[in-house]
Amino acid sequence: MHATVAAGTTVAAFDGDRLVGSARYHPMRQWWHGRSMPMAAVAGVKVAPEDRGRGVGTGMMAKLLADIADGGYPVSALYPATAPLYRSFGWEIAGGKYEAIIPARSLAALLRADDTVKADERAAGPVRRATPDDGAAIVEVKSLVHAQLRHCGPNTREPWELRDWLDDPENFTYLADDGFLSYQWARGHDEVAVEELIAVSPATARALWEILSSHASMASTIRACLAPDDPVQWLTREPDVKARRIGGWMLRVVDVSAAIGARGFPTGVSMSVRLDLVDTVCPANAGCWRLEVADGRGSLQSVRDAPATSAIQLGARGFAALFAGAGIGPLRLAGLASGGDPAADDALDAAFSGQAFLLDEW
What is the dihedral of CA 55, 57, 62, 67, to 10 degrees? Predict the structure, then answer.
């Protein structure tokens, strides 16, 4: 809290001299199909119980969103305790947080790579314990992984934010040239709670899982926060990895043009679609736009004439969900999209494909 106050990223509401509410955001970066952009991570939105229902939360979120826009953040994300307030300002459910529950014994002997497939020749580099001075190195490695695996949704923090966390003796953190692992003990020593395990090469991924498997003599369960497509289910000998979604988070596209320009897209997709965007909270986003995608990049150009009959109409919530990978068909069923034609639907589904997830909470 002190850091966000000093940085000017906290808003507060008062009734006279009495503090009745506060909210803040943290500066981060968020990865979308292998490219990153600045992201404002909203947190700590709270109103005193006796002052709820007076519009305090609405006023604070209006000011916070204006500050986020003035700060140049194309997108903002948050974990909602309740959704109506955030939806009224254009945030919408965008992705999930996922975990895998693995019997520790299943990691004792990982399956070998398929002998019929040419092996990845990259050997595992040295894996070492991270120190409080490794914040920048960890951010660099996480960025490498998210870029090469073309992840959608995960964030990276500022290096200085990681020092206290790395200095906590309860956290076990390991760093490789192309991978990172962090975990804690839970339920005494019966469970290992993995906060993050990411890697680019198969050799590094195995090396990190083997660190966890070394605890099998004590822990009965490994509970790991992972990407939803993490390959651990193909590494264990028995089909006893239980994966599930444990939470959802919301996204707000604050500057639609900047967000599209910074986002990554599949390199094989080339398309041009007219969009009619409605955004009463951030009116600069509203209007008719031409979305073009080619060679892994996108652009959103304002079209001054009236929207074509084939333009797809989206509000702020629908555009946020589309940006995060939701299909146009489901958005139509939810009443968040209308208009357009089937060819445009297929093009948008291909351009924004990807399962959005976060590994971090703030």
Answer: 150
Q: Confirm or reject CATH 3.40.50.2300 for domain 255-351, answering yes or no.
A: no
| pLDDT of 315 | 98
Give every CB contact of residue 330 below 8 A, 6+ residues apart in sequence: none
Q: Name which of 246, 247, 228, 251 is nearest 93 in CA terms.
A: 251
pLDDT tens string 4-28? 777 789 999 999 999 999 999 999 9
Give 140's contacts (C-beta < 8 A, 6+ positions apart): none
Q: Which residues contact 169 (CB under 8 A, 6 or more apart)?
A: none
DSSP state of 238: S
Q: How far apart are CA 250 and CA 321, in angstroms?
A: 9
Would you state the CATH architecture of domain 97-247? Answer: 3-Layer(aba) Sandwich (3.40)
Instruction: Judge if pTM exceeds 0.85.
Output: yes
